[in-house]
Design goal:
The complex is a heterodimer.
Chain A (H helix, E strand, L loop, with lengths): L7 H10 L19 E4 L19 H11 L3 E5 L1 H8 L6 E3 L7 E9 L15 E8 L3 E3 L2 H9 L3 E5 L10 E5 L5 E4 L15 H10 L3 H4 L1
Parallel strand pairs in A: 1-2, 2-9
Antiparallel strand pairs in A: 3-6, 4-5, 4-7, 7-8, 8-9
Chain B lengths: L1 E10 L6 H9 L14 E9 L3 H16 L5 E11 L6
Antiparallel strand pairs in B: 1-2, 1-3
Classes of the chains: A alpha+beta, B alpha+beta.
């Protein structure tokens, strides 16, 4: 977590509710190699000053996250975490203000369009999920060449059924070439308990649990 | 030497700018119905310590590209760079 993150406890709770263990790591940490999965949570890291994620990418922990990703570790950026991953160059493209300049806080219908990522590989292609979105800077943008590459390599993992923010090609989530780094604007960790309206997020989070040594043993 | 720097950061022309578009839509209500192609951006003023103007210019461009702008979606311009006197410490 970074100063200004605010979804880290939701992630911990969701992971624990499906049988995993989770620990919050402060942004000054310089080693994350002991973990199976690293999640960059939502929120407003460093106040989102300058641009969302622009300052967080210089946090000491981001060097460790980059090393972890390079060695094949699963890195998931949710909402603000997605913004940080694009600023850090771990994912292509960028997030811009929503096209109508409205803050969005609502359930969004999404379609799983690729099972190539560590987050979606257990979910059948074409599955529709409803997950909360909660963002002002959520419009995914990239140049035409990058978009063509993302589409051709099946790296668009989630698309909005009804594009709420003007994202290019309805993109809600993407992954890197290897599929181990995933960024998405919707919040799976906030859809992991029936009491708070839905458990579709569990489908995604369960894919991650499988990566842990505990589950494999 | 110290140089005062004025930098502009703006969205690339191909990136939709909802802020500029909203401002443009508001203008006719104030009688400015002759305004077109509004684009919003940000400007930064800072001072750089450097041995000469060329170095200051290079440092300014570098920090603009590495931090102030996200080259994926933004362009940056150095609007002005002028030598200034260093204010004595209070």
């Amino acid at each position: 977590m970074f100063p200004g993150s605010n979804c880290e406890h939701d992630v911990v709770r969701a992971v624990e509710s499906i049988g995993g263990n989770a620990e919050i790591v402060w942004h000054a940490a310089t080693d994350v190699s002991a973990f199976d999965v690293v999640v960059l949570p939502g929120g407003f890291a460093h106040g989102d000053y300058l641009r969302a994620g622009a300052l967080a990418r210089f946090a000491p922990v981001m060097g460790a996250v980059a090393d972890f990703a390079a060695s094949g570790g699963a890195v998931i950026g949710i909402c603000n975490g997605f913004q940080v991953l694009t600023e850090a160059g771990l994912l292509p493209g960028a997030l811009q203000k929503n096209v109508h300049l409205r803050f969005l806080c609502e359930p969004a219908a999404l379609r799983v369009d690729s099972t190539r990522s560590v987050l979606t590989r257990r979910v059948p292609l074409g599955t529709e999920l409803v997950l909360p979105i909660n963002h002002f800077v959520g419009r995914f943008v990239c140049d035409d060449a990058t978009l063509a590459e993302l589409v051709a390599e099946e790296r668009v993992v989630l698309r909005y059924v009804d594009n709420p923010n003007g994202s290019v090609d309805d993109i809600a989530g993407i992954c890197n070439e290897a599929g181990n780094v995933v960024g998405l604007m919707p919040h799976p960790e906030r859809a992991a308990d029936r009491l708070v309206g839905g458990v579709d997020g569990v489908l995604l989070l369960t894919s991650l649990l499988e990566l842990s040594g505990a589950a494999a043993a | 030497m110290r140089f005062a720097v004025h930098l502009e950061v703006r969205l690339r022309p191909t990136i939709a700018d909802p802020e500029g578009a909203t401002i443009e839509r508001a203008l006719p209500a104030l009688g400015f119905d002759d305004v077109h192609r509004v684009r919003a951006g940000r400007s930064f003023r800072l001072e750089i310590e450097a041995d000469d103007e060329g170095t200051a210019r290079r440092r300014a461009s570098e920090l603009a590209l590495r931090l102030l702008a996200n080259p994926v979606m933004e362009d940056t311009d150095l609007l002005s760079l002028t030598a200034v006197a260093v204010e004595p410490a209070p």
